[in-house]
């Protein structure tokens, strides 16, 4: 893995997520999209390391430290191991993986914040569904520029 390129990509996504998308009610989660990208296009150990780093970046722009790093790490690791069994190369599969991962990560962050005693909004599942849906729509289209930046080969346009 090219870790310097990874650091620049995560830093750029973190800044965009914290500044540009902060004003929108339902927004795509760029860091979650990167989590699924690295789980799909990297080997298992690099995907696990990158999922915890991306979770740490998500915690930096969040309210509390810990819940997002734990949930990103758990579900990023699970998705990396799942990718060893099921190929997630088609756009529709990637969108489904982003949608399900967003729902699971958001639910676990909500539960961990509730256990920690942080104030949580009472109706979290409607915005969580919107974020998951927007991330699933936008995410697969961001995979090609991310793959180009990380110098990963995609087989999206190969003949069969």
Please sum up the structure shown:
With 160 residues, the protein is mainly α.
Model description:
It is a single chain. The chain is mainly α and 160 residues long. It has helices at residues 3-19, 30-41, 44-61, 67-83, 91-116, 125-150. The longest helix is centred in the middle third of the chain and has 26 residues, at 91-116. The two termini are 28 Å apart. The model has no long low-confidence stretch (mean pLDDT 89).
Average residue-wise pLDDT: 89
Strand content: under 5%
Give the end-to-end Cα distance, rounded to a whole number of Å: 28 Å
State the order of secondary-structure elements, H for helix, E for strand: HHHHHH
> How many domains?
1
Based on secondary structure, the structural category is mainly alpha
Could you tell me the number of beta strands? 0
Radius of gyration: 15 Å
- Give the overall silhouette: globular
> What is the number of helical segments per DSSP (H or I, 4+ residues)?
6
User: Main β-sheet: number of strands, strand sense, barrel status?
Assistant: none
* Stretches with pLDDT under 50, minimum 5 residues: none
The helicity comes to over 70%
């Amino acid at each position: 893995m090219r870790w310097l390129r990874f650091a620049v990509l995560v830093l750029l996504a973190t800044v965009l997520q914290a500044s540009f998308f902060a004003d929108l009610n339902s927004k795509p989660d760029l860091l979650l999209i990167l989590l699924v990208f690295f789980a799909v296009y990297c080997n298992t150990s690099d995907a696990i390391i990158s999922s915890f780093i991306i979770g740490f970046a998500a915690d930096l722009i969040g309210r509390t430290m810990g819940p997002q790093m734990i949930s990103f790490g758990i579900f990023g690791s699970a998705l990396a191991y799942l990718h060893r069994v099921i190929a997630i190369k088609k756009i529709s599969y990637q969108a489904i993986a982003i949608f399900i991962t967003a729902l699971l990560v958001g639910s676990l962050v909500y539960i961990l914040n509730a256990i920690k005693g942080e104030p949580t909004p009472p109706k979290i599942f409607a915005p969580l569904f919107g974020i998951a849906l927007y991330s699933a729509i936008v995410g697969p289209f961001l995979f090609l520029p991310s793959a180009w930046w990380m110098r990963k080969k995609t087989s999206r346009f190969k003949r069969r």
